[in-house]
């Protein structure tokens, strides 16, 4: 397949030659095809020539002069952005931004975003951040960041715009599902420090464990938190809240699932490279192997959160409650390049123990409960009981001190339903035991 280089402009000939040389160098370690062809025979030479011609025309005819390095870097961005929403080319500044995110501290509004049908979309707001306090929700579309439309921004460009110095303001124009008109929200950036595990006793014997994202020490923190909840007595049930959890470190997700499982597969991955195929199983040491469990998920539960929910569901370890999860079941690897920049490249897919793909499917809850708030209508008569009347006669079995309903339960209908289910499971267990 001849390129007839004499027919091409000098710059184009040089670029074609450089591209062919780089491609051959990259392919050199790969074996020849089964038919005995060389790597050179498999190169899409016509497409390389077309690329070089586009490069040449931009250099000659574009309204403004563009540096060669900028054109080539943009081409690399394009290659990766067209693969899937999570692969990206990272320049040195973006590498630094990724490092800050991994450390869990950065200036921003506390929001996990992705691209859905080409539109910047909220995956989930992070707990106790400007985004969560402003009421941003999973699946909100971000139309503008300050005065910049987002439809032409890459995912990383959008993230860079939203980050900034603590104390500075940012305006987001969002469109919510089911609403016809967009709304504008003004947020003040903060230093985002994420605490991944929180807990409390909802009632005596019934614990609440919130995992907001999966960091390096999350599995260890979950184990110590369960032991702390059990100090006042054995747990009759536990709610594991993974709602609006965007994911995080794979090993942390394995460790959290392992806290409730004493055997069996947790998750496995499949990809083209040998080192992308992994299997993770539970160990015998388990923090809460027998505690009745309800797992809460919603549309903001993604990636590692879906791994935990899927493993516990497939292993029949707990009841998954809420709404369908986000459906991000892919593995990204960070690959450094020789120029100090790098790639974030999708290299594998997650699968639950029973072989279900999470990617673009999500986890279906065992019991669907839509988000809401429990309120008692005035005049219904349901908010007054005999025990609430002043001077009522006490039952001999009534405790002298009555614990108030957790404020969290008043505000969270899904959590209330999870607690009710745990109580029902406890009643059934006692009757069977009797």
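Sequence proposed for the structure above (434 residues):
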């Amino acid at each position: 397949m001849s390129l007839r280089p004499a027919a091409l402009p000098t710059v184009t000939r040089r670029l074609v030659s450089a591209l062919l040389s780089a491609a051959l160098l990259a392919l050199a370690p790969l074996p020849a095809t089964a038919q005995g062809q060389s790597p050179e025979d498999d190169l899409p030479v016509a497409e390389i020539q077309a690329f070089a011609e586009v490069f040449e025309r931009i250099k000659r005819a574009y309204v403004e002069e563009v540096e060669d390095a900028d054109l080539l870097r943009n081409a690399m961005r394009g290659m990766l952005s067209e693969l899937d929403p999570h692969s990206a080319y990272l320049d040195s500044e973006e590498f630094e931004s990724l490092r800050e995110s991994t450390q869990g501290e950065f200036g921003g509004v506390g929001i996990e975003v992705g691209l859905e049908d080409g539109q910047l979309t909220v995956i989930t707001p992070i707990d106790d951040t400007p985004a969560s306090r402003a009421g941003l929700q999973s699946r909100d579309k971000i139309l503008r960041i300050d005065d910049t439309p987002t439809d032409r921004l890459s995912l990383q460009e959008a993230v860079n715009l939203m980050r900034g110095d603590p104390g500075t303001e940012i305006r987001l124009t969002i469109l919510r599902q089911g609403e016809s008109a967009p709304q504008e929200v003004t947020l003040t950036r903060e230093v985002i420090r994420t605490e991944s595990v929180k807990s409390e006793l909802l009632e005596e014997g019934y614990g609440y464990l919130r995992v907001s994202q999966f960091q390096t020490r999350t599995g260890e923190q979950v184990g110590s938190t369960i032991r702390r909840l059990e100090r006042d007595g054995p747990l009759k049930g536990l709610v594991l809240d993974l709602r609006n959890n965007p994911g995080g470190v794979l090993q942390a997700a394995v460790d959290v699932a392992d806290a409730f499982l004493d055997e069996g597969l947790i998750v496995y991955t499949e990809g083209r490279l040998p080192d992308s195929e992994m299997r993770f199983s539970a160990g015998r040491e388990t923090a809460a192997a027998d505690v009745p469990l309800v797992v809460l998920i919603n549309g903001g539960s993604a990636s590692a959160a879906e791994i935990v929910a899927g493993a516990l569901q497939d292993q029949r370890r707990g009841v998954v409650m809420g709404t369908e999860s986000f459906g991000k079941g892919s593995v990204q690897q960070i690959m450094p390049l020789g120029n100090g920049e790098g790639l974030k490249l999708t290299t594998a897919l997650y699968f639950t123990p029973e072989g279900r793909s999470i990617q673009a499917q999500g986890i279906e809850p065992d019991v669907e409960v839509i988000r809401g708030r429990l309120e008692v209508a005035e005049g219904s008569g349901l908010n007054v009981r005999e025990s609430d009347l002043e001077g009522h006669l006490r039952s001999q079995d009534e405790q002298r001190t009555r614990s108030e309903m957790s404020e969290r339960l008043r505000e969270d209908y899904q959590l209330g339903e999870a607690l009710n289910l745990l109580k029902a499971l406890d009643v059934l267990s006692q009757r069977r035991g009797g």
